């Protein structure tokens, strides 16, 4: 009986303990449900707000395109009408002059005078596209937003799953690029190619063209595009403007650390490089061109080959044409490397860096590099571009994100 009583007592205690734990478990279940419901509501609200932001951005961008089209199209159509009317008038005057009988001197002089007046009429005003924001950069802007959103979603999803951030943590800098956290600065020095701002180490460099340096035969499209034209553009006077070479500089300065940017070669002969900030833009054509002096260097596409230039010396590069050129400047290492970029592959076209000769070898171009290239890094440097042919056309960026995995393995 005593054992039976003790057993029943133990069961009773167990039942009471289970009742308590069941009550606690019920509270936990309700707590989890409540927390999940609140979190779901907050997430739905945030997604709705994000959708509203995207919808507003969509409306603003499409409106920007429409406004740009309306403004530029109106001016272009008016210019076209004026030229067509002028051509028709000149053609009619010419026809009238040809139909005058050779003996009718007075009538001939009248028609000749009419033709001369028509030819002497003032030309139509120059198009002012270079003074307007160019709507063709919308694709680049929206593409950058899409890439940022895609990268953000992937990174945050990995974070939620506990995968971390690949050991890297970046903070945005004042210049719009991103610099790695102290723990990430121990990673190898190689240029990234992702347009996602928080995936860009400090070397990812945002280049904007400086309109105050553009030669009068270079038309700018926003701050990213440049094309050489036949008719001079009436830019305002500027002490930094090139006057003898069809060149333009980036507004950004480079004086420490590492920098990487990419340029699309759209058409023509183009040179891409760097130049000292204190370079005189009024130098003669022979001395003012990129790479023909000790204050600049470049990679040139001449329609057949790539050619590296420094100090008036050249090095021909036997590589196929690449539409995208990556430029990697390592300021502390006093090195400049040019890459051909295609898909997820980066091909080193030329590296400019002091390097001793192997025994029995001598290269005039490398000899010039060895003697004077390092002094270039005593200056603050700027990205520089030379549009050599009349049809030359280039576009800066955006970076190719497919190259990220390639660069991480280097």
Automatic annotation (TrEMBL):
InterPro entries: B30.2/SPRY (IPR001870), B30.2/SPRY_sf (IPR043136), Butyrophylin_SPRY (IPR003879), ConA-like_dom_sf (IPR013320), E3_ubiq-ligase_TRIM/RNF (IPR051051), SPRY_dom (IPR003877), TRIM8/14/16/25/29/45/65_CC (IPR058030). It comes from the Eukaryota. GO terms for molecular function: zinc ion binding. It holds the Pfam family SPRY. The keyword Zinc-finger applies. The keyword Metal-binding applies. Residues 172-195 are annotated as: Disordered. Keywords: Metal-binding, Zinc, Zinc-finger. Residues 187-403 form the B30.2/SPRY domain. This is Tripartite motif-containing protein 47. It comes from Buceros rhinoceros silvestris. The lineage of its organism: Eukaryota, Metazoa, Chordata, Craniata, Vertebrata.
């Amino acid at each position: 009986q005593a054992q039976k009583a003790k057993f029943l007592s133990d069961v009773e205690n167990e039942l009471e303990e289970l009742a308590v734990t069941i009550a606690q478990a019920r509270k936990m279940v309700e707590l989890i449900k409540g927390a999940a419901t609140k979190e779901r509501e907050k997430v739905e609200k945030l997604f709705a707000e994000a959708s509203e932001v995207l919808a507003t951005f969509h409306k603003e961008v499409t409106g920007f395109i429409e406004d740009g089209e309306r403004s530029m199209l109106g001016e272009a159509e008016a210019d076209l009408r004026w030229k067509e009317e002028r051509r028709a008038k000149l053609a009619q005057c010419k026809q009238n002059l040809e139909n005058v009988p050779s003996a009718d001197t007075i009538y001939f002089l009248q028609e000749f005078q009419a033709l001369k007046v028509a030819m002497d009429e003032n030309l139509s005003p120059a198009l002012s596209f270079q003074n307007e924001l160019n709507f063709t950069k919308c694709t680049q802007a929206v593409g950058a937003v899409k890439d940022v959103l895609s990268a953000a979603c992937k990174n945050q999803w990995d974070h939620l799953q506990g995968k971390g951030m690949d050991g890297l943590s970046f903070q945005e800098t004042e210049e719009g690029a991103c610099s790695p956290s102290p723990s990430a600065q121990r990673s190898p020095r190689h240029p990234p190619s992702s347009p996602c701002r928080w995936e860009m180490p400090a070397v990812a460099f945002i280049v904007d063209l400086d309109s105050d340096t553009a030669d009068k035969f270079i038309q700018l499209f926003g701050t990213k595009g440049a094309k050489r034209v036949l008719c001079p553009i009436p830019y305002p006077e500027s002490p930094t403007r090139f006057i003898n070479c069809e060149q333009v500089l980036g507004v950004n300065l480079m004086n420490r650390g590492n920098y990487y940017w990419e340029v699309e070669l759209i058409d023509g002969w183009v040179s891409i490089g760097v130049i000292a900030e204190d370079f005189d833009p009024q130098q003669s054509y022979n001395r003012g061109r990129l790479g023909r002096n000790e204050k600049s260097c470049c990679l040139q596409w001449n329609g057949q080959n790539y050619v590296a230039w420094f100090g008036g010396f050249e090095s021909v590069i036997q590589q196929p044409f690449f539409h995208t050129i990556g430029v990697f400047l390592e300021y502390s290492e006093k090195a400049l490397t040019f890459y051909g970029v295609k898909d997820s592959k980066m091909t080193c076209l030329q590296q400019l860096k002091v390097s001793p000769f192997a025994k029995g070898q001598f290269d005039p171009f490398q000899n010039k590099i060895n003697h004077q290239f390092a002094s270039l890094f005593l200056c603050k440097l700027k990205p520089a571009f030379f549009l050599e042919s009349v049809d030359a056309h280039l576009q800066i960026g955006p970076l190719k994100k497919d190259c990220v995995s390639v660069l991480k393995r280097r």
